[in-house]
Design goal:
The complex is a heterodimer of chains A (308) and B (115).
Chain A: E1 5-10, H1 14-25, E2 30-33, E3 47-48, E4 57-58, H2 59-72, E5 76-78, E6 83-87, E7 93-97, E8 102-110, E9 114-116, H3 124-127, E10 132-133, H4 136-139, E11 147-151, H5 155-164, E12 170-174, H6 184-192, E13 196-199, E14 202-209, E15 213-220, E16 226-230, E17 233-236, E18 240-242, E19 272-274, H7 286-307
Parallel strand pairs in A: 1-2, 1-8, 2-5, 8-19, 10-17, 11-12, 11-17, 12-13
Antiparallel strand pairs in A: 3-4, 6-7, 7-8, 9-18, 14-15, 15-16
Helix pairs in contact in A: 1-2, 1-7, 5-6
Chain B: E1 9-11, H1 14-23, E2 26-32, H2 39-51, E3 56-61, H3 68-71, E4 84-89, E5 92-98, H4 103-113
Parallel strand pairs in B: 1-3, 2-3
Antiparallel strand pairs in B: 2-4, 4-5
The chains are: A alpha/beta (308), B alpha/beta (115).
Chain lengths: 308, 115
């Protein structure tokens, strides 16, 4: 008889690791499978200053600490795996990896997180890493005294635009609406910055250049007029897409592709729970993912014990 | 001086890098920081280290003056995204990539250039 875990967790971000900590500490035989890296979007954050009990911590350090903690409770963690097929509708949940290995469990927690949204316009693949970036912390210093474009109108876009002015000669924010979604203080700070200008109600249509990015085409959404803007780099901050595509055929999602769950993190399928940024909710923080993961693990524990 | 906190061995000097690539047929070096685009690559390399004994996996700190040998390599011209990842075959640069790479991209490069 092949091994059957008590619970399989898909995703190793804050939600998946928290679920793993609670499940394995609760003596459940627990497996975490992740197609990405340990820590998920925590590692995208340079410094976390609002995690209770920890004054400031680097995102990767918190992720590393959670990873060591989950392993210390006996949880099996496999990251960067390729998952070929999920078979979650039966009582025993199954997953098949790209290399043919099959894992089974009595319950599953879906915590696949999200990924940065890209513009999907011509030139994108060609200039990623050659002018197009999704991480100001990583790549800002390649653009000292250069002209930059920031795409987006949320908190990340406006805050990162201000950060980028410490390096760049000028930053142009391009946003599709006539107003920003960011908090008022972030908007005010960007508007006060003499190095920032704004192109509103507009979207990028094309990247072009030679060895590196040299210009972008921008369409004014109100007039339809397309213009060119010379730039050395573009930083894109237009939100995240929930990584739920693989589950949508059998687990209920909303119009944004987010899992619909009840307060115990139960999905529409028995024995399947969901946690973290992939879940329909208003706020997305490390702390809310930790909370989701905790509740999902405790609910899964109760489900398994009821079944036994 | 070590700058990086990863599970793979960190090369500290240009001389050490030269020695490693001259003594080993297949070497992959990820030159980066402890940032969100670099950490995933280090973690993938940690996992591949067990599976691919024929390849030596190393990190090198982008901010170390010693990594100028990678930062200024002709193969990295135009690179504007961390990390810079180098694939060396018999002491020569066989492939260089800029910015984050996933498992399938890295294994494809290993299969193609360091087979």
């Amino acid at each position: 008889m092949e091994k059957i875990y008590d619970v399989m967790i898909f995703g190793a971000g804050a939600a998946g690791l928290s679920a793993g900590i609670y499940a394995s500490r609760g003596k459940l035989d627990t497996l975490i499978l992740s197609e990405g890296v340990t820590g998920g979007q925590m590692v995208l954050t340079n410094e976390i200053a609002n995690y209770p009990g920890v004054e400031t911590v680097k995102g990767y350090e918190l992720a590393d600490s959670m990873k060591r903690q989950v392993k210390s409770f006996g949880c099996t963690l496999k990251t960067n795996v390729k998952i070929k097929e999920y078979r979650l509708s039966d009582e025993i949940k199954e997953v098949e990896l790209g290399d043919g290995r099959v894992f089974r469990a009595k319950a599953a927690i879906l915590a696949p997180g999200g990924r940065p949204r890209s513009l999907n316009i011509p030139g994108e693949k060609e200039f990623e890493g050659r002018g197009i970036s999704y991480c100001a912390t990583c790549d800002a210093d390649f653009f000292k005294d250069k002209r930059l474009v920031v795409v987006g109108g949320g908190n990340s876009a406006l805050e990162e635009a201000v950060t980028l002015t410490h390096f760049a000669s000028h930053v142009t924010i391009v946003h599709q609406f006539d107003h920003f979604q960011a908090f008022a203080h972030a908007v005010e700070e960007a508007e006060r910055n003499p190095k920032i200008s704004f192109i509103m109600e507009s979207e990028l249509r094309e990247y072009s250049g030679g060895e590196t990015l040299e210009k972008v085409k921008i369409e004014n959404l109100r007039t339809g007029e397309v213009s060119e803007l010379e730039t050395d780099g573009v930083f894109v901050f237009i939100g995240y897409i929930p990584n739920t595509e693989a589950f949508r055929d059998f687990v209920e999602t909303n119009q944004n592709g987010e899992f619909v769950v009840d307060p115990l993190m139960k999905t529409s399928l028995p024995g399947i729970y969901a946690a973290g940024d992939c879940v329909a909710k208003r706020y997305r923080q490390v702390t809310t993912s930790v909370s989701d993961g905790t509740i999902a693990a405790l609910s899964a524990t109760e489900y398994i014990r009821t079944k036994n | 001086m070590k700058y990086l906190r990863t599970g793979i061995q960190e090369i500290e000097t240009a001389d050490e890098l030269q020695k490693i690539i001259s003594e080993n047929e297949n070497v992959m070096v990820c030159c980066g920081r402890m940032g969100p685009m670099c950490i995933p690559v280090y973690e993938i390399m940690e996992e591949l280290e067990e599976e691919r004994p024929g390849v030596k996996f190393y990190s090198m700190a982008f901010d170390s003056p010693e990594s100028g040998v990678i930062r200024n390599a002709p193969e990295c011209r135009g690179f504007m995204g961390l990390p810079f990842t180098m694939y060396y075959k018999n002491g020569q640069v066989a492939k260089a990539t800029t910015s984050i790479q996933d498992m399938s991209q890295i294994t494809a490069n290993l299969d193609q250039y360091l087979a």
